[in-house]
Structure formats: C-alpha cells, structure tokens
Specification:
Number of domains: 2
Strand content: 15-25%
Number of helices: 14
Shape: globular
Structural class: alpha/beta
Oligomer: single chain
CATH superfamily of the largest domain: Type I PLP-dependent aspartate aminotransferase-like (Major domain)
CATH architecture of the largest domain: 3-Layer(aba) Sandwich
Radius of gyration: 21 Å
Helix content: 25-40%
Largest sheet: 7 strands, mixed
C-alpha cells in the first residue's frame, strides 16, 4: 500500500496546476480555527475566501445538512424539493420580494444574470468596473475588469465596457441604447476591497439598464447587513449570491426582484445540481442564523479590526465594511500573507498590496485581538499596547 505521504504527493501531481497552493494541508476545522496535517493550529481569518460564514462545523448548518443527507440528496429540478423552495422563500423575504435561481457557484450565478438581462432587455451590452472580479467562466470572465485574467482566453464575449469605480460621469457616458446590464460589486473584493460610493450606485440605479449587484462576497451578512445594498439605499433588479450562503457547501443564487421578473421561461436556463437539497438545507440554517444580534457583532468586530489595523506600521490605508476588510500595505501583500501564516494566522490577498481579512461572522472579540497581534508580528512589529492589554499575545 502507498504510504500516506506518497499519496498526498501523487494527488497534488494529479491536480491541474490552476492554483498556487501553499504547502499546507488542512485536515480539520472548528469555529475560527484550522489544523493542518502536522497538527498545527491556525486562526482562520480568510474563511475559505469569505465562504465559511458561520465558522467551521457550525452546529446549525451541520445539523441541517446531516438531516437532509439522511432524507434526500438529489431529485433534479424536474421535480419540487422542500429545501430549495424554503431557501427561495427566506431569501425573498430578506430581499423584499424576489424569485431565485439556484446553481453551484458564484460564476454560474453571474452567467445567469448575464443571460437574464440579455433576454429581459433585448440588449447585449454590459457595463462593469475596472478592477472588478465576477468569475472565471467565459461570460463572467468577460465582465471581469482585470485584463491580465482575460488575456490568455481572448477573444472575450463582446459588448462589455469598463469604467472606473465611483466615476459617475464615466458610468453615465458608457450607458447607451446597447447596454442592458450594469454589473457592480458593492465592494470590489479581488480588486482591492474598494467600496462603491452611495452616489455612484444611486446613479447606476437611475440609468436605463438593469442593475445587478454582485454580492457573492459581500452578501449574507458579511458587511453588517444581510445584503450590502441595504447600506447603499438602492433596490437592484438582480443580485448574485454564493460564497457564504451555505457555509462552505457549493451553492450559487441569482435573485430577480419581483418588479423585474418574467423574462425567463422553462428551457431558457438550468443547472443539473442547482438547488441541491443538502446545500439548500444548510443555506436555510445559515440564513436563519444571521439575525440582528449577529449583524451588530459583525459591525462591532469590523470596527475594531479596521481601527487597529490602521494603526499598525506598514499599513497605509484600511477600507471595507463589516468583516470584509482590506489593509493596504507598504510591501507585497503576498509576503504579509506568508508571514501571517508562519505566525499561525490565515489571511488573504486582494491585489498586489492589499491584505484581505474575512473571518467568520461569528468571530469573537478575543480572536479579533489575537489576529491583530499576529498581523503586527508578521509586519515585524510588537503588538500594539491595546492588544497587550487584552492578554491575547
């Protein structure tokens, strides 16, 4: 029999090299912590790229998924299933009236939005933002405002125009009779954790095109409200969700506001595994867990995280909302991420010079303090006095 270490090595060779993986194999998680194959413990402030919204093995989605596994795994969308309809109802109530299409990922949710807007408006054009990220399938990639990610796969889907974030004049100029969709992230995630101004999003909502907000990273409580758009004073026609919706189980969702509904009919779109009963059952538990008390804690911990990060030497700017925080640093962000990992803290990059922090929404004040101390150590500084007083060093 092949030794376990050999099996791991051969397994890595058998995976297509689409990721620059760190040489760490995680085998267990609990709350805001991970353990690797060597037994080392890490504080997880990456959350599986803002996915493990309630923390690893949170009892509510864990119990819901287990219970559903014992009942029904799959029946196809040719038939009704209770978890999908229950989740659609919950999301509609949070949105204020919407219909849902379920799929398996954020990129698929974006593809659904692109198709929906094209059929609803009869217009093929899309306006998106420079620096945005919407996924890696061809349509989603074509609407991603990062040329380096598109270059190897061109020609892209035609008809996409890009404008700078928060440039209202450029946005208005870009929208003409060819544009059926304006696609915005309320906070550009991969593009550097750049929040959109209220005025910019308001201007987008007034233009003659469907407004789609990509809330794949910002939605489901991440910014301190269930949807980030609640803080922007707009009601979009379309919203995409994924990442944190099922606490790590694969799911994506397109929500269509009731007033924009009616464009699709049977046969226009589909997803074999979309609306999977197990994922939807877990997602129902996640939605139920995101109450006012948890959202208040997200805001409180986010303020503490951002406020102290801004005081650390080497950090030149902090931006974001809630528990989606980006720290602009005076060195390569990848180096800081590596140093944090060596100190036992998992964080992310968001571009060349931005360290992205996205812990579980259930994170404790003590873990926030500990993470800040570890970031300070990774930056080569002693923990600030405020952290030493917390006794988390």
């Amino acid at each position: 029999m092949t030794a376990p270490s050999d099996t791991v090595a051969q397994g890595l060779e058998r995976l297509l090299p689409t990721y620059a993986r760190a040489d760490v194999t995680f085998v267990r998680g609990e709350g805001a912590r991970l353990w690797d194959a060597e037994g080392r413990e890490y504080l997880d402030f990456g959350g599986g790229i803002a996915v493990v919204s309630l923390g690893h093995r949170h009892p509510a989605p864990l119990e819901a998924a287990h219970e559903q596994l014992d009942r029904l795994w799959h029946a196809s969308n040719l038939y009704r299933t209770e978890p999908a309809e229950a989740l659609a109802t919950r999301l509609s109530e949070r949105f204020g009236g919407a219909q849902a299409f379920f799929c398996n990922s954020g990129a698929e949710a974006i593809e659904a939005a692109l198709k929906y807007a094209r059929k609803a408006t009869g217009k093929p054009g899309v306006v998106a933002l420079e620096g945005s990220f919407h996924g890696r399938t061809l349509g989603a990639l074509s609407a991603t405002g990062q040329p380096a990610k598109r270059a190897a796969f061109e020609p892209a889907v035609p008809g996409v125009r890009f404008v700078a974030p928060n440039d209202v004049d450029a946005l208005r100029e870009a929208v003409d009779e060819e544009i059926g969709l304006i696609l915005l992230e309320p906070i550009l995630g991969e593009g550097g954790v750049v929040p959109l101004d209220t005025e910019f999003v308001a201007a987008a909502s007034e233009l003659p095109a469907l407004l789609a907000l990509d809330e794949i990273q910002t939605g489901v409580g991440r910014t301190g409200s269930f949807f980030a758009f609640e803080q922007l004073g707009v009601r979009p026609a379309l919203v995409t969700l994924a990442k944190g919706l099922a606490n790590g189980l694969p799911i994506g969702c397109l929500l269509v506001a009731d007033e924009a509904a009616g464009a699709l009919e049977p046969g226009d779109h589909g997803s074999t595994f979309g609306g999977n009963p197990v994922s939807c059952a877990a997602a129902c538990a996640v939605v139920d867990a995101i109450d006012d008390e948890l959202l208040d804690a997200v805001c409180e911990h986010g303020r503490a995280l951002a406020g102290t990060l801004a005081t650390l030497p080497g950090v030149t700017e902090v931006r974001g909302r809630g528990l989606l925080v980006g720290a602009v640093v005076d060195r390569p962000a990848a180096d800081v991420v590596t140093a944090c990992r060596e100190h036992g803290l998992i964080v992310l990059t968001a571009g060349q010079d931005v360290v992205r922090v996205a812990p579980p929404l259930t994170v404790s004040a003590d873990d926030v303090a500990r993470a800040l101390a570890l970031v300070a150590a990774a930056l080569g500084e002693s923990a600030p006095h405020i952290l030493l007083e917390s006794r988390i060093v």
